[in-house]
Write a structure and sequence with these properties.
By secondary structure, the chain is mostly helical. The protein has one domain. It is 76% helix and 0% strand. The protein has five helices and no strands. The protein has helices at 9-14, 16-20, 26-38, 40-60, 66-86. It is elongated.
């Protein structure tokens, strides 16, 4: 959006994921940051989404068990063989 007017709730919430992922420019980020500082409802939504992203990021860093890798490779081999036979 990139203008000087303050962000409202609709804009702040619509752009929340872009803001969390640092995918907006500095001016719009400042506008949303200012809105969050002034709006408890939007700040609460930000806190929930930020916490959820943190949990997902932490969970996704765990490595899958080696047995799972083996089972997936076996299933892919079976699927490839089926596709080659039917095609």
């Amino acid at each position: 959006m990139n203008d000087d007017r303050p962000a409202d709730c609709a804009e702040a919430l619509a752009r929340l994921f872009d803001f969390l992922d640092s995918e907006i420019d500095e001016i719009d980020g400042d506008r949303i940051r200012q809105h969050l500082a002034d709006c408890d409802g939007c700040l609460h939504e930000y806190d929930i989404e930020h916490h959820l992203k943190t949990l997902v990021r932490r969970s996704c860093s765990d490595a899958a068990p080696a047995e799972l890798h083996v089972r997936i490779r076996q299933q892919l081999t079976v699927l490839r063989a089926r596709m080659e036979t039917s095609g």
